């Protein structure tokens, strides 16, 4: 599906056609599921439909998912020389790439219509930043899960947002896709993505084949017990492009299991990064996933139906690094760092020298064989300073309550000042001025980004 905030081009197709294609050619279904998003029957154009959805009940989820993608890109791709985006759709992440300072980007998608729209949107974006040297190219190709697709030059970062689950139609389709990821990714580069977790999908329908709520509907379409590959289900999130319209039921998707994703990725030299090394980014995910390959979303939509949060919690982020050894930050020798840290720990009598493991956030996690899953995982590069114009950092969980209280006090002060005709407190006025300046700087960019939901 193109999940709200997804920006990818793997859109829902007619279920009856999908079932027929699944029988005829599962691999072909992977690619044909990428059909272009058509305008809703309720609206004259796609733009009208997207603008209406941007104000609808699903808007909090869409914004949160866009925020996660933006912070992932800022964390692992900021300042990178090049980026390759699989299933780029209409280019919903163009402004994220521009704000991250990435000069060269190639987006690839099955749909020629989506690609044409992405090209148009890039031209509009470049007109707003004429001083920046941007080499962005968008092409259509049906090869991603069917045959090898190779560029002459490799990329620093590869992304696939809300789309990799379509390649779980067969094990061969996933292997072909991850092969294409690996051969186009530089050694030490990062593969970033977001995906619905099959385990959480199963939890929703463990007592029945169908789960229905105001904002989320899931229906199992597999026979017998679900398998690691080729287990289809229907997903519809209300007020989004996955929501069923007349003649459709939602998006046909495939279950994704962590062990299958990590196991197949390892065959192509892609190892999971467990520690993202950024508290702001970590606060957007379930704390229980701190040492796991998939980081489940941690939404908070207090003014929305609870099922909107349920829908968001189905999704998780992943980051892999291409390496033949232990993943580590660029320019860091993981073996040397591990030895230094082990020696320091031994001197402090914290643990025996032969079993010491690195503990620093920027270290090479899991050098010791006893680290289990961490043996195939690494740490992220050190956090970079956020440039003006990007989204404000998300508060860590321990700070949320304090910030909410401060915000309530400021709102009360402002209301009191408005009623009495008095001047606003300086702190409130200053905050409004900063927000206005930020809004003016981001208005066009953010609108372009959020329209692709």
Question: What attributes does this structure have?
Answer:
453 residues; 14 helices; alpha/beta; nine-stranded mixed beta sheet; Rossmann fold; 16% strand; single chain; 13 strands; four-stranded antiparallel beta sheet
Q: What is the CATH T-level topology of the largest domain?
A: Rossmann fold
- Overall shape: it is globular
Q: Tell me the count of domains.
A: 2
Number of DSSP E strands: 13
Portion in beta strands:
15-25%
Helix content: 25-40%
Biggest sheet overview: 9 strands, mixed
Which value, in Å, is the CA radius of gyration?
23 Å
Query: What is the string of helix and strand elements?
Result: HHHHEHEHEEHEHEEEEHEHEHEHEHH
CATH architecture level-2 label of the largest domain: 3-Layer(aba) Sandwich
Average pLDDT, rounded to a whole number, is 75
Query: How many H/I helices?
Result: 14
CATH class of the largest domain: Alpha Beta
What is the terminal-to-terminal distance?
Answer: 11 Å
The helix-and-strand class reads alpha/beta
Taking pLDDT < 50 over at least 5 consecutive residues as the criterion, the unreliable ranges are: 9-44, 243-248, 351-376, 385-399, 419-441
CATH superfamily of the largest domain: Vaccinia Virus protein VP39
What does this structure look like?
With 453 residues, the protein is α/β, with parallel strands linked by helices. The protein has two domains: 15-322, Rossmann fold (3-Layer(aba) Sandwich); 397-450, no CATH class. The protein is built from 14 helices and 13 strands. Strands 1, 2, 3, 4, 5, 10, 11, 12 and 13 form a nine-stranded mixed β-sheet that branches. The N and C termini lie close together (11 Å). The model is unreliable at 9-44, 243-248, 351-376, 385-399 and 419-441 (pLDDT under 50). Residues 399-415, 426-445 have a biased composition (Low complexity). Keywords: Methyltransferase, mRNA capping, mRNA processing, RNA-binding, S-adenosyl-L-methionine, Transferase. This is mRNA (guanine-N(7))-methyltransferase. GO terms for molecular function: mRNA 5'-cap (guanine-N7-)-methyltransferase activity; RNA binding. One of its GO terms (cellular component) is nucleus.
């Amino acid at each position: 599906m193109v999940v709200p905030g997804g920006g990818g081009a793997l859109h829902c197709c007619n279920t009856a056609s999908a079932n027929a294609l699944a029988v005829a050619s599962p691999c072909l279904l992977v690619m044909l599921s990428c059909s272009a998003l058509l305008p809703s029957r309720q609206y004259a154009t796609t733009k009208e439909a997207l603008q209406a959805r941007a104000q609808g009940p699903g808007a909090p989820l869409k914004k949160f998912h866009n925020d996660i993608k933006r912070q992932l890109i800022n964390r692992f791709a900021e300042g990178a020389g090049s980026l390759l985006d699989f299933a780029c759709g209409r280019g919903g992440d163009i402004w994220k790439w521009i704000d991250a300072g990435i000069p060269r980007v190639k987006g690839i998608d099955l749909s020629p219509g989506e690609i044409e729209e992405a090209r148009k949107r890039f031209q509009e974006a470049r007109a707003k930043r004429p001083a920046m040297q941007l080499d962005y190219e968008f092409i259509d190709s049906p090869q991603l899960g069917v045959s090898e697709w190779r560029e002459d030059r490799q990329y620093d970062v590869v992304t696939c947002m809300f789309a990799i689950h379509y390649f779980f139609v067969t094990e061969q389709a996933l292997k072909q896709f991850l092969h294409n990821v690996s051969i186009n990714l530089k050694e030490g580069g990062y593969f970033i993505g977001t995906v619905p977790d099959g385990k959480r999908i199963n939890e929703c329908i463990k007592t029945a084949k169908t789960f229905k709520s105001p904002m989320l509907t899931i229906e199992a379409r597999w026979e017998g017990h679900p398998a690691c590959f080729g287990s289809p289900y229907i997903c519809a999130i209300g007020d989004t492009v996955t929501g069923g319209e007349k003649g459709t039921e939602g998006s046909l998707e495939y279950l994704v299991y962590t062990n299958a994703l990590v196991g197949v990725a390892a065959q192509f030299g892609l190892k999971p990064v467990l520690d993202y090394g950024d508290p702001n980014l970590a606060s957007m995910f379930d704390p229980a996933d701190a040492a796991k390959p998939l980081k489940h979303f941690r939404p908070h939509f207090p003014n929305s139906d609870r099922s909107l949060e349920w829908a968001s919690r189905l999704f998780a982020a992943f980051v892999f690094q291409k390496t033949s050894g232990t993943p580590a930050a660029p320019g860091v020798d993981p073996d040397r760092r591990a030895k230094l840290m082990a020696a320091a720990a031994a001197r402090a009598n914290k643990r025996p020298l032969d079993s010491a493991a690195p503990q620093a956030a920027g270290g090479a996690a899991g050098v010791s064989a006893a680290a289990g899953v961490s043996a195939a995982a690494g740490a992220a590069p050190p956090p970079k300073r956020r440039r003006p114009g990007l989204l404000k950092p998300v508060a860590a969980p321990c700070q949320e309550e304090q910030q909410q209280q401060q915000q309530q006090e400021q709102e009360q002060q402002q209301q009191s000042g408005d009623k009495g005709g008095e001047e606003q407190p300086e702190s409130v006025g200053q905050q409004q001025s900063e927000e206005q300046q930020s809004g003016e700087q981001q208005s066009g960019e953010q609108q372009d980004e959020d329209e692709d939901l």
